[in-house]
Amino acid sequence: RQTGKTTTIAMKAIYFADTNPNVTVLITSPSLRQSMIMFDRIATFVYSTPRLRNKIVRATRTLIHFENSSRIIALPCSENLLRGYTAQMVICDEASFMPEEIITQVIFPMLSTTDGYAIFLSTPWGKDHFFYRAFVNPAYSVHKVKSSECPLIKPEFLEEMKANMTKEDFLIEYEAEFVEALNSYFPQDLIRKCVELAQKLGVELYGSLEATFPAGDYYAGVDFGKLQDYSVITVLKRECDILKLVYLYQFPLETPYTNVIGHLVRAHQKFKFRKALVDQTGVGEPVLEEIRNQGLSNVEGLKFTVQIKEELLSNLKIVMEQNRLAIPYHRQLCQQINEQQYAYSKSGHLQFSHPTNSHDDMLWALALSCMAAKEPPKKEPAFTFS
Length: 386
Hints:
- This protein has 14 helices and 14 strands.
- It starts with a helix and ends in a 14-residue tail after the last helix.
- It has helices at 5-19, 32-47, 50-53, 79-82, 100-112, 130-135, 155-164, 167-175, 188-201, 257-271, 284-293, 306-321, 331-339, 361-372, and strands spanning 24-29, 56-60, 63-66, 71-76, 89-92, 117-120, 217-223, 232-239, 242-250, 275-279, 299-302, 325-326, 341-344, 350-353.
- The chain is α/β, with parallel strands linked by helices.
- A hairpin with an 8-residue loop joins strand 7 and strand 8.
- The protein has three domains: 5-143, Rossmann fold, CATH 3.40.50.300; 148-179, no CATH class; 188-372, Nucleotidyltransferase, domain 5, CATH 3.30.420.240.
- The longest helix is centred in the first third of the chain and has 16 residues, at 32-47.
């Protein structure tokens, strides 16, 4: 983190487009929002340099077109949007979360006739993916930079981060290591498949109720927290057998329950939930009754016993393994899912926990909404013979 890879690649893209006429530089990532981080850095450099700024003949939010007919374009990792381009350079940011088939069947072919460059940047995430195989392939030019190698990052800061993060998270984020806890209930590769499904289906994740949402079957999950934990609301949209995560909102610490209830009511007015499940542990029946009094008659509460937790996360994992859950790229959510650890009790039940100095509120809200969307088993038709 913060070692300058975005700045370095941004400068490389600008230099390449400026010194080579008629070239196309594409920037893509798991989401347009992520692509725009790189593109905004490029735009800042271009507009702050008079010589480059004067060469612009056309510019939009996602495009810079220079007078030498070279272009820099930002796109999300969508097959429909990427296909059709011929490029001389493609920059893939957070490549570990991009579908392999997009890389091998869309990006590489667009470089085949131009002898172009493919640049992959990413936080390490899972080994069953093209990015890891390229990382260990001597045919690729590989650059691994630890945060400790950056002179702008003080050793004291890294020591503080090490004390406040899990060992695995620190190695991933600051040491650029491909690691994963052995007792992680949700493997990194499984999580990535959910992210890839969202990219294939074009699922957008929103964190504001100001967005417009089409009519459909929506289900909500609410995990209540207050002092040390966050309150989180997640919303899934069910389309046939696919569950799409379309809304996620995390409240600031110490947010009163009345504010969370008010937000849930507004969300219900927007989504018209078919069902909502809330964590009733510690908040009791009064909070549930207040939610119902506000018009959410189809809300149910669950107290997080060992058995209920096992049912919630087992159901979530099954849906993920069946490739039925689409999760748009959200670094914090992916991290929380992967950090959930498990062990077996003497009675044979699964017991779950998250590492010290980490949170799992988003995970439980997602598990609740996923359980809310679970269809009851269909009854076999009854036949009467006379």
